[in-house]
Every structure is written in structure tokens, then in C-alpha cells.
From TrEMBL:
<keyword id="KW-0963">Cytoplasm</keyword>
<feature type="transmembrane region" description="Helical">
    <location>
        <begin position="266"/>
        <end position="287"/>
    </location>
</feature>
<dbReference type="GO" id="GO:0065003">
    <property type="term" value="P:protein-containing complex assembly"/>
</dbReference>
<feature type="disulfide bond">
    <location>
        <begin position="185"/>
        <end position="203"/>
    </location>
</feature>
<keyword id="KW-0472">Membrane</keyword>
<dbReference type="Pfam" id="PF00335">
    <property type="entry name" value="Tetraspanin"/>
</dbReference>
<dbReference type="InterPro" id="IPR008952">
    <property type="entry name" value="Tetraspanin_EC2_sf"/>
</dbReference>
<keyword id="KW-0325">Glycoprotein</keyword>
<protein>
    <recommendedName>
        <fullName>Tetraspanin</fullName>
    </recommendedName>
</protein>
<dbReference type="GO" id="GO:0046930">
    <property type="term" value="C:pore complex"/>
</dbReference>
<dbReference type="GO" id="GO:0019899">
    <property type="term" value="F:enzyme binding"/>
</dbReference>
<feature type="transmembrane region" description="Helical">
    <location>
        <begin position="44"/>
        <end position="68"/>
    </location>
</feature>
<keyword id="KW-1015">Disulfide bond</keyword>
<dbReference type="GO" id="GO:0051604">
    <property type="term" value="P:protein maturation"/>
</dbReference>
<keyword id="KW-0965">Cell junction</keyword>
<keyword id="KW-1133">Transmembrane helix</keyword>
<feature type="transmembrane region" description="Helical">
    <location>
        <begin position="123"/>
        <end position="146"/>
    </location>
</feature>
Amino acid sequence: MSNYRYQSEGGGGVRGYSGIEVRDMHPRMMHPHHFTFVSTCVKYMIFMLNFIFWLFGGLLLGIGIYAFKDKWEEANGGVRLETIYDVVLNISLVMIITGIVIFVVSFAGCLGALRENTCLLKFYSMCLLLFFLMEMAIAIVCFIFPQLMNTFLEKEFTETIIHSYRDDPDLQNFVDFAQQEFKCCGLSNAGYQDWSKNEYFNCSSPSVERCGVPYSCCINATDISSGLVNIMCGYGVQEHTVVAASKRIWTSGCIEIVRVWAERNLYVIAGIALGIALIQLLVIYLAKTLEGQIELQKSRWAA
């Protein structure tokens, strides 16, 4: 912008233009044509993180579908899904559901970051926030009310797991792994006597396993010399007292053993949980930052 005025002075004075010229006072405020508010680092960091989880979700989904299909064929279509507990205790189905959730949410994060789509980014950040709040709620209940959680698990899951032990191969393998890893037998405070609720291990059963427990309860289930597992090592132990049975099997319930283990490793578990929470908060922050940058870029284009 310029403003000039022609001036003349009498008596042979100097003639000419005088005035002021106003140019752009803020050249740095004018962005180049190729400038963008969207940070490439933030954008591709979100994309790569979600791409890894997207692959993991797809892998988990594929394994779950394969396991469920195999179970369905073995049971001739007789997989029971009558209650929520049947779903929760069906490991292959849990893998499918978890895989779908991870696959969809991470795909929204990938596509939202790559295509700079604010709707997908909002959906992604809201899902992460929901997961974070759920995890925090579960952690608070477990750390502040451990006995309440212990009672809930014993009441709601003991009979269902014990009854379904032989009916679901995946659940059976999981229970055997837990009993061997934590050196326990059964779930509740009744310990190894929980297995009397199973139709195969009940003392009134015509099965050869009556009054017994699974081999995973045994202290020495594997023969050292031959390396073979003695699946009959727990037969008849329900007829023995706790003192006598403790010479052959682990007698304490797994829920109580896991609770004690968690209390002993409280700082480690809390540190891992805190690390996961901080990572989730960081990703939520990055997503919201990218969302704000995209909105700012759109407003610049609209101006």
C-alpha cells in the first residue's frame, strides 16, 4: 500500500512527490504455498503404530477363526453359547472378538492418519479413551478390592469352568497350563475338592477318573526317566485328607494362589499397567493433535 502526494513550492522551490509507502509489515505471517499445518512426524507415527496393531489384530482374528472352526467340527456344531459365561470362557471366540476390535480400531487409526480424516480420528481416539477408562476401572477394583474380586470370580466362574473342563479342549488346555504354572488345583478355596463338581471326577461317576483330579494338579506328573506324563497320577485323591493329598498334588485353589502372586509382584504389575496407560494416553494425545492440525489446515484452505 502506498500514498504519494505531489508538492510544489513557490519561488523556484523544489517540485516532486512526497509521502509514505506502506508495505507488508509481517512477511513471516504469509505462509508459502506448499506449507501445511499437519505434522508429517505425528501423522506417520500414528500410522505405523496402528499398522502394527492392525496386523496383530488380523493375526489374532485368523487364529481365532481357525480354532473355532476346528472346535465346531469336532463338536459337530454343538458349541454351546447360551450365556455370557459361555462366550467369555470360549477362548477361540474371545480371540475372534478381540481380533475384530483391534482390527477395526487400528484400521480407523491407520486410515484416519493416512487420509487425514477427522471423523475416523475422532472415532479412533474415543475408542482408545473408552479402553483406557475400562482398564483403569478394572485396575482400581482389583487393587483396592482384591477380596471382592476374589469372591466374584469364585462365585461366577468356578462351577462353569469345572463343568466345562472336558467339553472344551481349549479351556481344558488353559486350565491345565494355569494349574501347572501356578502350582494349584481347582479354583475356589475348596481347592482340589472343586473337581468333585465335574461329572468325570465326581466320586459317584462310573468313570475310571472318579474321585480324581486332572494330571496338571500333580506335583510330579512327568516321569523323569521316561519323560512321559502320568495322566493317572491324580486318581482317587479326593478320598484323601488334605495332608495326605498334598504329598501327591497341589491342594490350594488357583484364584487365591494368583491373588497372592499378584500381591507379591504388585510393583511390577503396577509398573507395567502404568506404562501401558501412559502409552495409550500418548497415542490419544497424538491423535487429538493430528486432528487439530487437520482442522487448522482445512480452515486455511477455506480462508
